[in-house]
Amino acid sequence: MCYDYHGSWDTSATGAQAALFDSKSNISTSYGLRSWIKAGALRSKLIMGLPLYGRTWKLKDPNVHGIGAPAIGLGPGDEGTLTYREIEKFNEDNNAKVVYDAATVSTYSVAGTSWIGYDDTRSITMKLSYAQALALRGYFFWAVNGDQDWKISKKAKQSWIIS
Predict the structure, then answer these.
(1) What is the mean pLDDT of the chain?
(2) Contact 110, 97 (CB under 8 A)
(3) Cα–Cα distance between 41 and 115 in angstroms, integer?
(4) At what angle are helices 29-38 and 121-133 packed, to 10 degrees?
């Protein structure tokens, strides 16, 4: 389970809920996976869990919207959560600005004071490349019914090279 690093339990700042890397802390997928491997877990037994939903915040200032931006509460969705399908609709309906963050290998959208951190096809592809470089057994999505027209699932299937 390589997600839920940030969410409704801390509404003071936005966060990459499934960050592959975090230069400011050890709350990241890379740190977690490497810790398991260092502790002796067999790579062939490790599976990377990826979310098909995002976490939302209400920004304190809509002009300050990067990862870690000050927030004052939950954003749209049920308890600050939207499925990927709902995120795609939100982005379209609100003409949201979509930003890929290379430092954390994650994506966020912002429209007014609404901020959503999630994974899209680009970040998922990068994360699966990372998992393959570590020689992990595979990956899973939670929950697959949140995908938009199988967009991420199909991209993941294309990205995962079975050897």
Answers:
(1) 95
(2) yes
(3) 36
(4) 20
